[in-house]
Amino acid sequence: MSRRAIFVVAAIFLSGISLGLLLSQIVVSPKSTKRVAEITPEATSTGVVAGSEREKATVKRVIDGDTIELTDGRKVRYIGIDTLETVDPRKPVQCFGKEAADKNKALAQDKSIEMETDISQSDRYGRLLRYIYVKTDDQKWIMVNEALVAEGFALSSTFPPDVKYQDRFQLAQDQARAAGKGLWGGCNVLATPAATTSSDTAEASPVGSGQVVESSPNSNSCQIKGNISSGGKIYHLPGCGSYDKTVIDETAGERWFCTEEEAINAGWRKAKNC
After folding, report:
1. How many angstroms separate the first and last alpha carbons of the chain?
2. Which residues contact 223 (CB under 8 A, 6 or more apart)?
3. Cis ω before 30 (30° cut-off from 0)
4. DSSP character for 29?
5. Of 169, 165, 56, whose CA–CA distance to 118 is shortest?
6. How far apart are CA 258 and CA 235, in angstroms?
7. Which of 147, 156, 214, 253 has its CA 20 to 30 A from that of 136?
8. Cα–Cα distances in Å, from 225 out to 40, 64, 92, 248, 266?
9. Would you tell me how many other CB atoms lie within 10 Å of the CB of residue 115?
10. Is 176 left (phi over 0), alpha (psi -120 to 50) or beta?
11. Please, are residues 80 and 156 in contact by the beta-carbon 8 Å criterion?
């Protein structure tokens, strides 16, 4: 074989190797890309719904219209709403309080739920602060907080900084009030913010809440101020630290008392700075 023929054979051989390498890249490269694309994130914590901020839990019992206890012993207070009292030993059962508790039982008792946080994790009593979701019979998720307001079982009562759904709750309340649903048809309620002129707590004032009116005549002989604030119903005696700056708004359910006994029997407690 001549030297020229040897060079031609070698060139053909090297060209074949180069072509083979090129074809292998064309075939392998898309397959490799596909493998990368198939990698997807998975849930990293049991009890947390993938792709959301919600935590799964199960309700052990309903305490009242806006509070539940979970099977693990934790207590949960619904964010952004307030139902009237049924279990506070210092207060009588209030109008539509029992109906609200019964409705909460119908929605949440023994149910598997999902919980969503806002800004705050818990309140001063150690209860979790959450928006609660539950599936209906037709397998649709609803927010229990909003449903209670929409049906007239609860008042919109949003405390900053937990205001994520404030507008939704206020709209639901406006519609329930216009339709005369629940407590709006059976109780004397004012849909105005609770008076917060003074308080012996450092908690924020509620936004868009309503109050059940408890009318009481004012007279010069009754000097005890019954204030309603974020800390609850608090009475102030003359000489107490906040007495002079406390302004009583009777249209918001606040009232004057002639004796401490009268205030206590009506569900008020003494201010801590008295």
Report:
1. 118
2. 237, 238, 256, 258
3. no
4. H
5. 165
6. 11
7. 156
8. 62, 29, 20, 7, 13
9. 22
10. alpha
11. yes
Nearest to 100 by CA among 40, 186, 204: 186
State the residue for tokens 């629940």.
182
pLDDT digits (tens, 9 = 90+) for 214-226: 333 344 458 899 8
What dotted CATH number matches 55-187?
2.40.50.90
Q: How big is the chain by its Cα radius of gyration, in Å?
A: 32
Joined together, the tokens standing for residue 237 give 């005696």
DSSP 111: -
DSSP 251: G
What tokens does 128 get? 């979790």
Please state, in angstroms and rounded to a whole number, the distance separating the CA atoms of residues 81 and 170: 10
| pTM for the predicted model, two decimal places | 0.56
Contact 137, 121 (CB under 8 A): no
For 85, the 3-state DSSP assignment is coil
Domains of the chain by residue range: 55-187, 188-274
What is the percentage of the chain residues whose pLDDT exceeds 70?
A: 65
User: What's the CA gap between 82 and 78, in Å, rounded?
Assistant: 8
Looking up tokens 């408890």 gives 214
As a whole number, mean pLDDT of residues 71-93 equals: 81
| DSSP letters for 192-238 | SPPP-S--SS-PPPPBS--EE-------TT--EEEEEETTEEEEE-T
The backbone torsions φ and ψ at residue 252, rounded to the nearest 5 degrees and listed phi first, read -100, 10
Is the predicted pLDDT of residue 260 greater than 70, yes or no?
yes
In degrees rounded to 5, what are phi and psi of residue 156? -70, 125
Which positions are catalytic? 77, 85, 127
